[in-house]
Predict the 3D structure of the following.
Amino acid sequence: MKNRKLLVVSAVNLRKGGTLTILRNCLQELSELAQRDELRVVALVHDRQLCDYPGIEYIELPWSVRSWAHRLWCEYVTMHGISHRLGDIDLWLSLHDTTPRVKAHRQAVYCHNSYPFFRWHWHHLWQNYRIVCFALFTKLIYRINLHRNAFVIVQSQWFREAFQQMFQWDKNKIVVFPPIADPPPALPVREGAVTFKDCKADACSEHSAPSLTGRAGGGSSFLYPAYPDVHKNFECLCEAARLLEEEVGEGRFEVLLTTSPDFNRYSRWLHRRWGHVKSIRFCGFLPKAELEALYASASCLVFPSQVETWGLPISEFAKTGRPMLLADRPYAHETAGGSASTAFFDPDEPQQLKQLMLQLLLGDHSNLHDIKPTMPQPPIAHSWNEVINHH
């Protein structure tokens, strides 16, 4: 066997959602290199079963997620010992924001946590104090050992500029690597679905859209696929739905939320305050196939999140060509680049969102526009192979 360079990927905290997708995409690509004997890859993970690919060597550290104390011990003590045991490491790639204290020729860190840029309010402290703590302390976490990295990986141009300004980091050492969005399913809009071109004035009450809600029963559907964290700003869409239902009545539209009423304190608060709105459906967490079916049939994507590094559902839904109503934030403008039929609203103004939703129900598309793509400046990567070979 030829002498292969050793790459270590540390990702003990990536267990769900978009971050787990990033880990899987990374290891899947590196697996091909490892199987061709071009690289030796060791992955430090919470559970191998979440991301098991041939050719990858795994070190499982399930205890690291028990608490922040365990996590910090793992990052700054355990990983240091592992790096010495593994020996001659060419690149240590940390996929979750922190820069561990390790022995390697090169280090790099993937920064995908946008909490330092979240403009939180006092009520968020009650709804989920951890998110507020993340917003306060992630900046410190980013800064610890940052100087050890040969380069930093981010998902977007806006995040590179914000990161550079916050940490006075050399922009030539910040690699933009946009996330890889799975294409939407090649499924037709399901029979009976109502699109906005069919739904004008009173006519929308005469149609019957496919409803996963069992409540709204008709009209066009507005989809918001998101995890119930406070920065996701579900309240803006819920209040807009309440206002719209008051104006046009029940059965004209439905708002589909991929969360459950009792998942956490934030989702319970949402349900207490807006659970009476007939047009809102708390669909719960959906398997991938069901979520893809929603992408294929929803009339419009609404994405009111206050802050994201990217906003992957926007990328996924944009390829359908159907309308999108997005928060007027830097991440959304960049992620929506190249999309059609898109409008932006102030995520602190549900009345503004309600008006855009109403216009769509009335067949008025005058506020929808094609969005010019954002072209990130170099350095930029389009694959994990390009990332690991960056110098």
